[in-house]
TrEMBL record:
This is MBL fold metallo-hydrolase. It comes from Terrabacter aeriphilus. InterPro entries: Metallo-B-lactamas (IPR001279), RibonucZ/Hydroxyglut_hydro (IPR036866). It comes from the Bacteria. Residues 18-222 form the Metallo-beta-lactamase domain. Pfam families: Lactamase_B_2.
């Protein structure tokens, strides 16, 4: 299993990266399976450098803020209007309750029903695994102002944990325990962003990974363009015993 960072900018697409999107791939039954964890603002363009969007096997949305989901509207255009058509059934999209209606409204116009006909929307439920080819994906409800989930992705004996957007919460223990790689929200800076219930800082991300136990690699992501990533890394490094990694667009990591 590997993960390609398509976008890792927090809150909006930054000058060097789209917003949240992670392409996860694994070999199974003679082909490569691909899933997306989020498809935020600006991500659809660079995604095409790595995979044909209509060839993705499923999309999993952590929550319905635009920096995590809005490019599903652009993916609809690809699925519906690419010459010759994608030649496939409806694309499965997993997300919080009401994701389909929310995105159909965001697309607007007279094609809302058509969008719902292109995608096969499913509501995720806390701790109820979803199987997609070689992947077992377990959604874990986390702490954010809206209905939000982290995803624990398992394939081939490896574990990728993606926090989505969250503050410190007990659910992170189950999400992160024993993960080979953790993609952790690090949007806040300690001493400046001390508002509870929204995001992790680098330090809080590292604390969560240490508390969960068995985490092999910690990678900070969802860092807004106004933050200095090195400050986030330093705050995490004060807690994390190993090397603190920073997500960067177009990089692929073996999990």
């Amino acid at each position: 299993m590997d993960v390609t960072i398509i976008g890792c900018s927090g809150s909006f697409a930054g000058p060097h990266s789209p917003a949240s999107c992670y392409l996860v791939r694994a070999e199974h039954e003679g082909r490569t399976w691909s899933i997306l964890l989020d498809l935020g603002s600006g991500a659809l363009g660079p995604l095409q450098r790595h995979v044909q969007p209509h060839a993705v096997d499923a999309v999993l949305l952590s929550h319905l803020h635009v920096d995590h989901c809005i490019d599903v509207c652009g993916l609809y255009v690809v699925m519906r209007y690419v010459p010759g058509g994608p030649g496939r059934d409806r694309l499965p999209v997993w997300g919080p309750q009401g994701s389909g209606v929310h995105l159909a409204r965001a697309y607007g116009g007279g094609e809302a029903d058509s969008l719902l006909g292109v995608f096969d929307f499913h509501d995720v439920r806390d701790r109820e695994p979803v199987t997609i080819g070689p992947f077992t994906v377990t959604p874990v409800r986390v702490e954010h102002p809206v209905d939000a989930y982290g995803y624990r992705v398992e394939a081939g004996g490896r574990v990728l944990a993606y926090t989505g957007d969250t503050d410190t919460c007990a659910a992170l223990d189950d999400l992160l325990t024993g993960a080979d790689l953790v993609l952790a929200d690090s949007a806040f800076v300690d001493g400046r962003d001390d508002v509870p219930g929204i995001h992790l800082s680098g330090r809080r991300a590292a604390e969560a990974a240490v508390r969960a136990g068995g985490v092999q690699r910690l990678m900070l992501t969802h860092i807004p363009a106004w933050n200095d990533p090195e400050v986030c890394r330093q705050q995490a490094a004060a807690v994390w015993p190993g090397h603190v990694e920073l997500a960067a667009p177009d990089e692929t990591h073996c999990v």
